[in-house]
Design brief:
alpha+beta, 4 helices, 16-stranded antiparallel β-barrel, Porin, elongated, single chain
Length: 418
């Protein structure tokens, strides 16, 4: 069966073409009909071409208009500062308020205290995909102390390899780099990582770090060293924490070197070891306090609601004065099991032993038991309560400040980060 479309088309063309001939004329010939068909096809082709050109012109105009709008927006963002830095800059912070009941004052009497221990603001900026800046400014004890704890630029040298320069936290211990109040148990930070490490410990210099797919990472840093007091009659003689220079016109005659190796290849497990070497812990030759080395190792393990933290740290110092004073070896360790019966509630216990600097005015040698709880009403807000009992080592001491007397304390705290 033939398709009817050709016949219908021919009939339509004949009907269209017939009026072109006078009524008196005879029927058009085949040649005349063919001429009419060719003329109509030419008109159709011309109309199609004109329509295509019109569409292209409209599309080009639309693209130009869109490009003009984008250019105006980018110009506006550049002139206002948006897009050039604001979109790549982040502001954050954290803080904590403490209430301590039962601690000792300078006379050895019990007293209570409320302290805005710290309020911290952080500012970070991403220059591009490979270069970024981070800073941290801390206000302690309601503004009595203002410190820039971090201000460094970090570079991606290549995949899994980074370098940094400026003021940064040394890669030692557990809480030195991660110390927001929502991340640890207890109103006060543990004493081992305050006296021995001593967190928060920052310094100016340069560092490099890298990691592997198997969970092993490493850090190396060259920074300013400690400037410890080597005068045996001083209140802070041979005290590590008092030797932090905090990059405030820090003496850099003798630098310090830090290295860390960490493993996180098993879910819930972190194992790390660090070494910090001080070429001269006092920055002054011939004073009886020379080089010093810190050895630190820790482990964190979490399985479901159960978690365990343990850390050991030890300083070994050389020099006639520090040895004669009995402070050439300073060490400490703690163990902290915890349990979270609910996501918002965590219970913990901690035992720590500190054997640090001691003289006629100071006694940082003690052991302490602590139990308590953290409650997180929100992920970034925590309420804390704890009870601690401290017992000092009073052997071989003739006199010491009454401040360093045994005590039992009850603490409350609130912490936050954003």
């Amino acid at each position: 069966m033939k398709h009817p479309f050709p016949s219908l088309m021919m009939a339509g063309l004949l009907a269209y073409a017939v009026p072109a001939f006078p009524e008196t004329s005879s029927a058009p010939t085949i040649e005349q009909l063919w001429q009419v068909i060719q003329a109509q096809q030419a008109e159709i082709d011309a109309l199609k071409k004109q329509q295509a050109e019109t569409k292209k012109t409209a599309a080009d105009a639309g693209e130009k208009a869109e490009a003009a709008v984008v250019a105006v927006e980018e110009s506006t963002m550049r002139s206002s500062g948006a897009g050039s830095w604001a979109d790549k800059t982040t502001i954050g912070g954290y803080g904590e308020l403490h209430y301590n009941n039962g601690i000792k004052n300078d006379e050895g009497d019990d007293y209570d205290e409320i302290d805005l221990h710290r309020f911290v603001l952080t500012l970070s900026h991403e220059f591009n995909d490979r270069t970024r800046f981070f800073s941290e400014v801390e206000f302690e004890h309601d503004g009595e102390e203002v410190e820039v704890e971090q201000a460094y630029v970090e570079f991606d040298l290549k995949d899994k390899l980074q370098a940094r320069g400026g003021v940064f936290l040394l890669p030692v211990g557990i809480i030195n780099e991660t110390h927001e109040p929502t991340t640890f148990y207890g109103v006060e930070r543990n004493d081992v990582e305050s006296i021995i490490i001593p967190a928060t410990w920052w310094a100016g210099g340069a560092g490099i770090n890298g990691y592997f797919d198997n969970g092993i990472s490493w850090d190396l840093a060259v920074t300013e060293g400690l400037k410890m007091d080597a005068d045996p009659t001083s209140d802070n003689a041979f005290r590590v924490r008092s030797g932090r220079q905090k990059t405030a016109e820090a003496v850099a005659n003798d630098l310090a070197y830090t290295g860390r190796l960490k493993y996180t290849g098993i879910p819930g497990l972190e194992v790390a070891a660090s070494i910090n070497y001080q070429t001269d812990a006092s920055q002054e030759g011939g004073d009886g306090l020379d080089e010093g080395t810190l050895y630190e190792a820790h482990a964190i393990y979490q399985q479901g609601p159960f978690a365990l933290r343990a850390l050991y740290a030890q300083w070994d110092f050389d020099g006639s004065a520090v040895k004669a004073n009995g402070n050439d070896e300073q060490s400490g360790w703690y163990i902290e099991p915890s349990y979270k019966p609910w996501d918002k509630l965590g219970l913990y216990a901690r035992y720590e032993d500190v054997d640090a600097e001691r003289n006629e005015d100071r006694n940082d040698r003690f052991d302490q038991w602590e139990i308590g709880a953290n409650y997180w009403p929100l992920e970034d807000v925590v309420l804390k309560v704890d009870y601690r009992s401290r017992n000092y080592d009073h052997t071989s001491i003739t006199t010491v400040s009454p401040e360093y007397s045994d005590f039992d304390a009850f603490d409350l705290g609130i912490g936050y980060q954003f």
